[in-house]
Amino acid sequence: MNHSHNVTVDYKTHFLQAAFHYMPSTDLAIADTILYAAISVGMLVSILRSSHRPRYIWILFVCACLETIGYGARVECTGSGALSTFIVQAVLILVVPIAIALVNYIVVGILLEAGGKQVYCLTPKRVARVFFASDVGAFFLQAIGASMMANEASADSGQNLALIGVVVQLGFFTMFVFLILYIAFGNGFRMYAMAEFKPVFHALCLTSILMYLRNIYRTIEFLDRHGYVASNEWVFSVFDTFAILVCFLAYSFWNFGQLLPGTEAELAAIVAKYQGGDKDVEMCIQSSDPAGSSGVSCQGGNLGQPNLVHVMSCE
After folding, report:
1. How far is CA 312 from the centre of its chain?
2. How many whole angstroms separate alpha carbon 298 and alpha carbon 31?
3. Which residues are 305's β-sheet partners?
4. Strand pairing partners for 138?
5. Is the separation of the CB atoms in 136 and 96 below 8 Å?
6. In terms of Cα–Cα distance, which of 66, 62, 75, 1 is closest to 32?
7. Model pLDDT for residues 192-231, shown as the tens digit of each residue
8. Which residue, of 79, 110, 152, 260, has the fewest CB within 10 Å?
């Protein structure tokens, strides 16, 4: 009986050491699971308290829940040494931040739309599509690579595949960070100078920098699977677990649903106020009531719900 138990323990220890390149802490994984469960609840409360709740904002809540599941699978993996739970935690923790970045892409597209401009070939509609398409490609490369790395026979091939995915993601994300800075401070935009948009850029810059650092960490990890970065759990905890956790905290504090107006007309009115022009961004319909008094109503698209029409009064 003891011999059988020793064999089981030896197998689990060997598997965990081979899969993670260090002995993962069960206690740390439990703490991470609890933290992400708490942030999931916090994200839900923050969204429900928003003045409006565009569809894209729910991506953050779903991602927080998936991170919780990922770290829950990590707890199970450290206890059982099962290949299936290793794959679940590896894939979720690795690729969920890709979906988180989609929210930033959408918000930057909204800001471009409000400014009425495009950057080179990137129209407001194309921003989320282009960068998310690059992330989807990186997603599949990283997901397949992460699952292959669980098997020693295919670990090297899986590492190379995942590395390609991370490099593609890092390259496109670098361009995206420059796009944020250009919209915030570049000539023709300078949207950071608009007080209403400053908190939005705080959230975009902080979360994008954290995700960028995480991508750099993942690149180094894949480049040298047996180096210091890949062989120490604290590095993973700081540059992955903690970095993404802070992103969720930032999204909760600077809630896009609360910070951004619900219609294109309202957003464009903010930009026009700072530009000092009467920008034609909405259709105003002059009307009069039976008493002879007149007023103006405006129609603008509802952001996040393009098939709806929002009618508001304007002066």
Report:
1. 32
2. 51
3. 302
4. none
5. no
6. 75
7. 888 888 999 999 999 999 999 998 998 888 777 789 999 9
8. 152
Is the Cα dihedral 53, 140, 211, 119 positive or negative? negative
Strand order of the β-sheet with 294-302 is 283-288, 294-302, 305-313
From 79, 64, 84, 95, select the one nearest 29 (Cα to Cα).
Answer: 79
Q: What is the DSSP string of 256-309?
A: HHHHS-SBHHHHHHHHHHHHTS----SEEEEEE-TTS-EEEEEEEEETTEEEEE
Q: What angle do CA 80, 93, 239 make, to 5 degrees?
A: 110
d(CA 265, CA 274): 15
Three-state DSSP state, 312: strand
3-state secondary structure of 80: helix
Q: Is the pLDDT of residue 281 over 80?
A: no
Q: Note every long-range contact of 239-244, with CB atoms under 8 Å and residues 24 or more positions apart, other chains counting.
A: 239/213, 239/214, 240/93, 240/214, 241/32, 241/71, 243/210, 243/211, 243/213, 243/214, 244/67, 244/96, 244/97, 244/100, 244/210, 244/211, 244/214
DSSP 8-state code for residue 50: S
- Per the structure block, which two tokens stand in for 281? 């961004």
Please give, one letter per residue, the 3-state secondary structure of 202-263.
Answer: HHHHHHHHHHHHHHHHHHHHHHCCCCCCCCCHHHHHHHHHHHHHHHHHHHHHCCHHHHCCCE
Residues 178, 251 contacting (CB under 8 angstroms): no
Is the Cβ–Cβ distance between 288 and 251 less than 8 Å? no
Position 311: which residue type? V
**Whether 192 contacts 115, CB under 8 Å:** no
pLDDT tens digit string along 96-145?
888 899 999 999 988 888 877 777 777 778 888 889 898 888 878 877 88
Residue 60 contacts residue 99 (beta carbons within 8 Å): no
